[in-house]
Specification:
alpha/beta, two-stranded antiparallel ribbon, 10 helices, 11 strands, about 45% helix
């Protein structure tokens, strides 16, 4: 089957109608409809349904399967072309990442900007989303590398390349009314007395922990990103709860305290699809990332030794 048929099928699904897809791919609608029928005949199953009186298409179960597989087939063809281009053009290529919400800014600053200086012709594509979106993007081949804030749920499908432990911290305004002078840590009992704003990655863990301790917290907001949590904290209306890298620097006007007696662990993981080869430029990036990670670990050890 010509991959162009798959690309046109993807266009129909993502545009939501034959008319919109035909305009997008610049072919006549009857020709596009003929290609979809050819796919249905080839696979022996109905792929899309158009309800009477509605221009919007509906995917059948078979269409859903083909949609995800076609995504991967087309991305594999694109990656193959990219890798061949890399061989002929040197250190070129496209790096595609699935990033947990709020990870993009620190990732760009700490990793992509210095990598760009070494490989100025590399193009970066960043897709931010929740865990399910990241899984789907990686498995369908839209992206090669995932940066996850929570543990992977389909461990048999993914390979963990790097894992970095993160601390759970309480975020206060610099001169917060909720912060006592000289305090260096805060416990769950204290947190339960504050109006709280939590990142989604922490919420389920803390909800269970508070319940186990018999505490009823005042949770004002749960946010998808840490950036949103910190916006809540800025005017001292809440105390934030987020995961933090040990070397992370707080924005001006905020300060963080470790949360003691936490009965769970959080980590950031870098993953790829198990058994799937990476592009040459992705391999170069991971080698670079490993060197950064090693340097970061050394810096964290030195910081801990100075504190002791």
């Amino acid at each position: 089957m010509d991959t162009q048929h798959y690309r046109h099928f993807l266009a129909v699904v993502e545009a939501g109608s034959m008319t919109a897809a035909a305009e997008f791919v610049h072919i006549a609608q009857p020709a596009l409809s003929k290609q979809i029928r050819a796919l249905e005949e080839y696979f022996g199953a109905k792929l899309i349904i158009t309800r009477r009186g509605s221009k919007r298409i509906i995917l059948t179960d078979a269409g859903e399967i083909l949609y995800h597989k076609a995504k991967y087939i087309c991305s594999l063809e694109d990656r193959t072309q990219n890798e061949i281009d890399e061989l002929t053009n040197g250190d070129h290529g496209t790096l595609r990442f699935s990033l947990a919400n709020s990870r993009a800014t620190p990732f760009i600053c700490r990793c992509l900007k210095p990598f760009h200086k070494l490989f100025p012709h590399v193009v970066f594509e960043l897709y931010e989303g929740g865990l399910k979106e990241q899984h789907d993007q990686l498995l369908s081949g839209i992206t090669e590398i995932g940066i996850l804030s929570v543990p992977i749920t389909h461990q048999n499908e993914f390979e963990v390349l790097f894992r970095r432990d993160e601390a759970v911290a309480a975020i206060f305004a610099r001169d917060s009314r909720y912060l006592n002078a000289g305090e260096k840590t805060v416990g769950p009992e204290q947190l339960a007395e504050f109006p709280l704003c939590m990142s989604a990655g922490c919420y389920m863990h803390f909800k269970k922990m508070f319940r186990d301790l018999g505490l009823t917290p005042n949770i004002l907001s749960v946010c998808t990103t840490r950036t949103s949590v910190m916006k809540w904290v800025e005017d001292d209306s809440v105390v934030g709860v987020v995961p933090l890298d040990p070397l992370e620097v707080m924005p001006s006007g905020l300060r963080s305290l470790p949360i003691r007696d936490v009965d769970f662990a959080l980590s950031k993981t870098v993953v790829k699809v198990k058994g799937r080869s990476l592009s040459m430029i992705a391999k170069k990036f991971l080698e670079f990332y490993g060197q950064l990670d090693e340097a970061r670990r050394g810096k964290a050890v030195r910081k801990k030794n100075r504190a002791e």
